[in-house]
Amino acid sequence: MEPILEGGSMDRPLAGRVALVTGGSRGVGRGVALGLGEAGATVYITGRTVQGRHPDLPQVSGSLEETAAEVTALGGMGVPVPCDHRDDAQVRAVVERIGQEHGRLDVLVNNVWGGYEGLHRWDERGQRWQAPFWEQPLELWDDMFVAGVRAHYVASALCAPLLIGAAGLVVNISFFAGQRHHGQENIPYFLAKNADDQMARAMANHLRPHGVTAVSLYPGLVRTEGVLLAPEGTFDFSNSESPQFLGRAVAALAGDPQRLARSGQVLVAAELGEQYGFTDVDGRRPRSIRAEYAEE
């Protein structure tokens, strides 16, 4: 299926559109912002790292200003907005600013996620992620649900009026782990991702009559800064994705006037690549890993 464009041009199909990507200083959020930027969108990017480096990721750079500059360099317009999504007042201020400056919002990407911070904060990277739940820090629950699921709900609720005015798109960034728990998978992570999926499904029921699409979107293995810090041999990158690949998936959905038919669904970026015909930044098209998480 070729991308279907609503306005704009073939090289800037989202020109004139306004997007909000939460948690876009680095990682998946940064990639999503870049994917929307190269499609010509104006992208508001929230996060806590204004300058310098994140305290849990001192080895890597990444800030709102850097992401915004890259979005603009790709042909969009990047707008960095400092925001801690655990503070509803700060989120409301971001939404009010978008409303005052544009009066509409075409795309909301709920990406902000505090659930991975413990991987960099704990003594042994990743080891306690697989530990039994009673051996894990209790704050991991709040990292997942307050700085993750609740933040997605709050942003969606506050943005809904602007999205309705634009017949927009809501995307919850989730993952296959939400579909099934097995082995020693992290329990708060499983529950949080499942909640994000169910939230998109439930929001779709409320938003569909207003022409707004709500979906949950899964990446595969993404080469984020944090993932690339893992010890050699931890991951097999042969079928991995750049963060920007997920952004191209969001841009393809945003540019499809038939997207409402997908509302409430769990979508996979690699499968959208096949359907819409886009590739990763290196020209490759990753394979879907859905089968690896299928119910036995």
From TrEMBL:
Domain of life where this protein originates: Bacteria
The leader peptide range reads none
One Pfam family it belongs to: adh_short
Gene3D superfamilies from the UniProt entry: NAD(P)-binding Rossmann-like Domain
Classification via PANTHER family? DEHYDROGENASE/REDUCTASE SDR FAMILY MEMBER 1, DEHYDROGENASE_REDUCTASE SDR FAMILY MEMBER 1
Q: What is this protein called?
A: Oxidoreductase
Q: Which organism is it from?
A: Deinococcus metalli
